[in-house]
Amino acid sequence: MLAVALSLVLALVLLVSAGMKLAAGPAGRAALATYGIRGEPLASVAWAALGALEAGLAVCLVTGAEAAAWATAALFTVFCGAQAAVVMQGRAGAPCACFGARGHVGRGSIARAALLAVAAAVLPLLERRELTTEEWLGLGLGAALAGIAALAVGLLALAREIGELRLAIAPQGALEIAGEGPEIGGRTALAEHFAGLRPEDFGLAVFTSEGCHICHALAPAIAAFERDPRVLLRRFDEAEDADAWALADVPGSPFAVVVGADGMVLAKGTFNSGGQLESVLAAAERRRGAISA
User: Fold this and answer.
1) Parallel, antiparallel, or unpaired: how do β-strands 202-208 and 255-259 relate?
2) Where exactly are the structural domains of the chain?
3) Which of 39, 84, 128, 211 gives a 20 to 30 Å CA spacing to 176?
4) Which residues are CB-neighbours of 118 under 8 A, at least 6 positions away?
């Protein structure tokens, strides 16, 4: 059973390597320059030959051919030696070309190639026999569990990449267009709806409509601003508060206007997320600070 399992693992490694080489394209072929293989024609031939050799050895390993095991051991030994030579030349970190174009030469890649070479060399020494149904089921269960573990690792890596990408992308603020809504710095009759507003507070007018799907989706995010002690929130529905819509000259929903205690319009804008609504308040705070200064 051990021989069959080991041959399947080595075959899977070779197939994955060949598949990733195929998917890497020009970037993968360029990585062969680490080993002195330069120029598009030569790199293309070497890349195709290496992928075909790995795929062929994988198929032969599955069939149990002893010569395939020795050939695989020799192939990984060559990989190990080539990477060791690169490291000895002081070029650690260069593209590895082992699994496409993303890997890099280093102690880890050398140890991986050496371990695979030893495993392939040990394979012919193991007794190989026909497996029982229970043993095949056990191998299948082990492969399924390994696949689930690999999928979990992949999902975690993807989540990390997405998180880093979101941090790298600057968030967009609300869409503030001149001529839409009340004039910034001007006075608005909306202040009448914010009676008792303190000078240090903000009056946040949010304009929504019944047929606006975004408005319904953002309802919890809008309600969260009511917990801010410096914000007095008022909602204005397009049908029920048509007079307020007319006063503010609202272009559509969802739309937000921030006013001060004196009725001055400090910020406005169309928003599509809670972050964009928060950016309207942030713009109001900046403008108030500039006015105070």
Assistant:
1) antiparallel
2) 2-153, 189-292
3) 211
4) 73
Question: How far apart (Å, rounded) are the C-alpha atoms in residues 161 and 148?
Answer: 20
Cα 199 versus chain centre, distance: 44
**Count, residues in the chain:** 293
Residue 57: pLDDT band (50, 70, 90) is confident
CA-CA distance, 236 to 218, in Å (whole number)?
Answer: 14
Give the mean model confidence (pLDDT) for residues 91-106. 77
In the block, tokens 């946040």 appear at: 204
Structure tokens at 293: 């200064």
d(CA 79, CA 95): 13
Top pLDDT among 96 and 246 is at: 246
Over 80: is that where the pLDDT of 100 sits?
no
Task: Give pTM, 2 decimals.
Answer: 0.47
Angle 16-19-24 from CA coordinates, rounded to 5°: 120
